[in-house]
Amino acid sequence: MEGGGGGGKHFVLVHGLCHGAWCWYKVATALEAAGHRVTALDLAASGAHPARLDEVRSFEDYSRPLLDAVAAAPDGERLVVVGHSHGGVSLALAAERFPRKVAVAVFVAAGMPCVGKHIGFTTEGFMKRAASKGLLMDCQMVAINSEGEGQQGVALVMGPRFMEDKYKQSPAEDLTLAKLLARPGNQFLDDPVMKDETLLTADNYGSVKKAYVVAGADGSSTDEVRRWMEAMNPGTHVEEIAGADHMVMLSKPTELSELLMKIAEKHT
Question: What strands, in cross-sheet order, belong to the sheet with 237-241?
């Protein structure tokens, strides 16, 4: 989905695991109504993207729609790239590859990697914490099999109780929509790109301005997690949206839209 135009900013919106561009429909509408350009995209095998999960063999392939969108930005255009949840990892990869095209990287209730650690560090940390505290609830981990080639990784399938928890402050209609549209997702935790501790550099990813949006009512976004993120990326602009569940763009779309415009105005 792409829309808007004129003299506004260009926002690129990146969804989280198992979701798609559809989850940004409220925020995209608000940003476009304010005169901004919006690109809400589906990562590979997500949302309406045509690929099957078993066809996406690497984290780079999964992130390719975002990498291509940032690469296609005309010289001189600086993007406001927004990553939600696991989408923050793809955002970090895009910022490393194209630092001069990203005016500000905005992490919304997201994993925010840092220079000096592998890009999957925050995801691994969340999964370990989730396993120890039972935060994954009724999610299932399912083997990804390619015809004639055996197992190609593990997919996470979100369970209804888990989704209800993540959408606990969102309208019931949005939870229903999510249950209809969510697809299994691969975190690519064993991917070589995700394991490369030299991937994120101070000259590239480290040089990009960053903002972090805390969801005030998100059980997985505790003060401990917030302090951890800030400590790993000193100088990050941090904001909080009170009463927002993990799906900030659905539970508090007006507040998030206004905050994204404020961040864009400050950093571009």
Answer: 2-3, 37-41, 10-14, 79-84, 102-108, 209-215, 237-241
pLDDT for position 188: 94
pLDDT at 12 over 70: yes
Helices (H) and strands (E) in the chain, counts: 10, 10
Residue with tokens 């990869």: 93
Relative orientation angle of helices 121-133 and 87-97, to the nearest 10 degrees: 170
Q: Which residue is catalytic, options 90, 218, 245, 251?
A: 218
What pLDDT, on a 0 to 100 scale, did the predictor assign at position 145? 85
- Total domains in the fold of the chain: 1
Catalytic residue among 42, 61, 84, 85: 85
Q: Is 257 a catalytic residue?
A: no
Model pTM score: 0.94
Single out the catalytic residue among 174, 246, 251, 257: 246
Instruction: Mark whether 84 is an active-site residue.
Output: no
Q: How far apart (Å, rounded) are the C-alpha atoms in residues 117 and 96? A: 13
Bridge partners (DSSP) of residue 11 are 38, 80
> Residue 83 sits in a domain of what CATH number?
3.40.50.1820
DSSP 74: P
**Domain span including residue 84:** 2-267
Q: Is 36 a catalytic residue?
A: no
